[in-house]
Structure formats: structure tokens, C-alpha cells
């Protein structure tokens, strides 16, 4: 029998892309609310309680409300795409490659990684755990996102203001992803985070520059690359590239992708490196990650419905 799935926030940017990935899958039956019902608390509660799986594609506050609405004995298993529960005790972090095998499969409450933390944690966590990079270093993160990363409101802004060429933000040095980045990568200090948006619908480049020579306990770039390649060797979504491309580009009009591509770029003398992650904010950064977790929780092929 098919698993029932309710996407709360199904008409939003992340919700629509999850629906696209589930379309035509016989293992899942989608519960859909009409336009008149989709923000009605009673209709949402009924759908949340009925569903085998609820995927929350909502602003944080609405995601908290949704979790509180679910009857304790309903048995609904929840995947939350928002940042409401990413460091909340009792929630499993929905990053299969980082939490390891068998964890998400059994979980009842899964909080998916944020789009920027996905790249940062994919790059850093394995290297910090392997003691090839120090925990006790003030890491910096430079990142570029397509404008769909800001959901419907940022999409509307980019469509309305046709002249936005480059936008850097979080200029107060605060951002909702910082706690998650620090906690899930295992580093001691809050990173200095410089996010930005370019006028492409989707795509991300997340980079961690490393002044290796000044870090004392950091391994050489070749060793970092070899460890990441070993760590992700069995992953069908994550590729650790050898060598250095001449450039990495976020393209306007790129197709959806659920891949995660990683590079360790090193200077010839090994004293400096750039860790770089490239992916789709709506793929491994959100909707693809949610479907990957759903697949694991439902016991189907982990990558079914994903664009690899
Ligand atoms: N976009 C991205 O790349 C990523 C997004 N996320 C997270 O996923 C979540 C959803 O983001 P995104 O899809 O981009 O956002 P959108 O703004 O595009 O979509 C949010 C949807 O939620 C609906 N909604 C808002 N409040 C309620 C409510 N009380 N009850 C029911 N529905 C409600 C909105 O309705 P309406 O259509 O009427 O506005 C909208 O359809 C957010 O928490 C975001 O931070 C995480 C990683 C990446
Ligand atoms: C471009 C843009 O605005 N991005 C969003 C983050 C999008 C995302 O990852 O959502 P979560 O916060 O749920 O993780 C921001 O910086 O607030």
C-alpha cells in the first residue's frame, strides 16, 4: 500500500519541487489541500494527522505550529525543511551522508539542513572528525545563492527589480544558519559568514578559504582532498573532484539537480586552500534532500525521484 504524504506549504518554492520529485511514484500518495484549505488550521491538522509522512515547507513559525498540531498518537513522521528544528534535541539532522547509515531510516522527526549549511558541513565535518582540520579555528564561509533560496518573496523581488546584479547580506554578521553550521560541523567558533545572491534562479557555491600554513594543525590540501574522497566514496550524490577546474559557474536557467560537487583547491606549495561546494539550493539544499530522507524513511531506493 502507498504511503500517504502531506506537503504542508505545497504551493511554495520548496514544496513545488518536492511534489515534482514525487510525481509518478507509486510508493507515495500525495494528500492535497485546495487553495481555500491550505492555510486553514483545521484542514492542515486533519491532513497532518492522516499522513504517514508530513513534509513541512513553511516559514519557521508555521513549521513549529504544524508540529504542535500533530496528535501525539497519530504516528505521523515529519520532515521539516525549515530552520525551526535543526538544533532541537530529539530531532534527527536530515543529512544522511553526515549522520551515517540507519539513522534517518528509523527517525520520526527529521530536520533537513539549511541550504548554506549543506555545503559548509559537507566540506568541514568529515575533515574535522578526521582531525585533519582544527576544531578551534575561526572559519569563514563565502557563499553565493540563486534567488529561489529566499523563497517566493525573494523571487518576486528579483522579478520586480530587474537590475539586481549582486547582493551581499547578513551584514550584521548574524544569520539563522550560524548555530547549525557550528553545531553540525563540530567547530568551536561561530563562523564569519558572507552570503550573497546572484540573479540566477537556482544554484549555490559555498566556499571555505583555508590559510593552511597559519593553521598549524591543518593537513595539506592533497591530504584533505584524499580524505573527503574516501569519506564520500560510496555516495551516489556527492562527488569529490580531483584537480582544479579553471572556473566554477552558477548558470542562469540551470536544470534542477540533486547532486553535491566538492573540490579541495590548493596552492602549488600547499600553504593555502579553498574548500568549495557546488549544488542546487532547491536540490541537495532543500527539496532533493527532503525526498532523499523520505525515501530512506519509507524504505525505498534512497535516490528514487532524484536528479543525479
Ligand atoms: N528556497 C530554498 O532554497 C530553501 C528553503 N528552505 C526552507 O524551506 C521553507 C520553505 O521555503 P520556501 O519554499 O523557499 O518558501 P516560500 O515562501 O516559497 O513558500 C512557503 C509556503 O508556505 C506557505 N505558508 C506560509 N505560512 C503558512 C501557514 N501558516 N500555513 C500554511 N502554509 C503557509 C506559503 O503560502 P503562500 O503561497 O500563500 O505565500 C508558501 O506557499 C522555509 O523554512 C525555508 O527557509 C530550506 C532550504 C532551502
Ligand atoms: C538566498 C536566501 O535568502 N537564502 C536564505 C536561506 C534559505 C534557506 O536555506 O532556508 P533555511 O533558512 O530554511 O535553511 C537566507 O539567507 O535567509
TrEMBL record:
CDD domains in UniProt: AGPR_2_C
Subcellular locations according to the entry: Cytoplasm
Domain Semialdehyde dehydrogenase NAD-binding, chain residue ranges per copy: 4-107
Catalysis: reaction(s): N-acetyl-L-glutamate 5-semialdehyde + phosphate + NADP(+) = N-acetyl-L-glutamyl 5-phosphate + NADPH + H(+)
InterPro entries: AGPR (IPR050085), AGPR_AS (IPR023013), AGPR_dimerisation_dom (IPR058924), AGPR_type-2 (IPR010136), NAD(P)-bd_dom_sf (IPR036291), Semialdehyde_DH_NAD-bd (IPR000534)
UniProt function note: Catalyzes the NADPH-dependent reduction of N-acetyl-5-glutamyl phosphate to yield N-acetyl-L-glutamate 5-semialdehyde.
Protein name as annotated: N-acetyl-gamma-glutamyl-phosphate reductase
Gene this protein is translated from: argC
Amino acid at each position: 500500500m502507498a504511503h500517504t504524504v502531506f506537503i504542508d506549504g505545497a504551493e511554495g518554492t520548496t514544496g513545488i519541487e518536492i511534489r515534482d520529485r514525487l510525481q509518478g511514484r507509486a510508493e507515495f500518495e500525495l494528500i492535497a489541500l485546495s487553495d481555500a484549505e491550505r492555510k486553514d488550521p483545521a484542514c492542515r491538522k486533519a491532513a497532518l494527522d492522516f499522513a504517514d509522512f508530513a513534509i513541512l515547507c513553511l516559514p519557521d513559525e508555521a513549521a513549529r505550529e504544524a508540529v504542535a498540531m500533530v496528535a501525539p498518537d497519530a504516528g505521523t513522521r515529519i520532515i521539516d525543511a525549515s530552520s525551526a528544528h535543526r538544533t532541537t534535541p530529539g530531532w534527527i539532522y536530515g543529512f544522511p551522508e553526515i549522520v551515517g547509515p540507519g539513522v534517518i531510516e528509523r527517525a520520526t522527526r527529521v530536520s533537513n539542513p539549511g541550504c548554506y549549511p549543506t555545503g559548509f558541513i559537507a566540506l568541514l565535518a568529515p575533515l574535522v572528525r578526521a582531525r585533519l582540520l582544527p576544531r578551534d579555528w575561526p572559519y569563514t564561509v563565502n557563499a553565493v545563492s540563486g534567488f529561489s533560496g529566499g523563497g517566493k518573496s525573494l523571487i518576486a523581488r528579483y522579478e520586480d527589480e530587474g537590475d539586481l546584479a549582486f547582493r551581499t547580506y547578513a551584514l550584521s554578521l548574524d544569520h539563522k544558519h550560524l548555530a547549525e553550521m557550528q553545531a553540525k560541523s563540530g567547530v568551536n567558533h561561530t563562523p564569519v559568514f558572507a552570503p550573497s545572491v546572484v540573479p540566477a534562479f537556482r544554484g549555490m557555491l559555498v566556499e571555505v578559504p583555508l590559510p593552511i600554513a597559519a593553521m598549524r594543525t591543518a593537513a595539506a590540501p592533497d591530504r584533505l582532498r584524499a580524505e573527503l574522497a574516501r569519506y564520500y566514496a560510496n555516495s551516489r550524490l556527492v562527488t569529490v573532484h580531483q584537480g582544479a577546474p579553471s572556473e566554477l559557474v552558477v548558470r542562469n536557467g540551470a536544470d534542477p539537480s540533486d547532486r553535491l560537487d566538492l573540490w579541495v583547491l590548493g596552492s602549488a606549495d600547499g600553504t593555502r586552500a579553498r574548500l568549495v561546494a557546488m549544488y542546487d539550493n532547491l536540490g541537495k539544499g532543500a527539496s532533493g534532500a527532503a525526498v532523499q530522507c523520505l525515501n530512506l524513511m519509507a524504505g525505498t531506493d534512497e535516490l528514487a525521484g532524484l536528479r543525479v
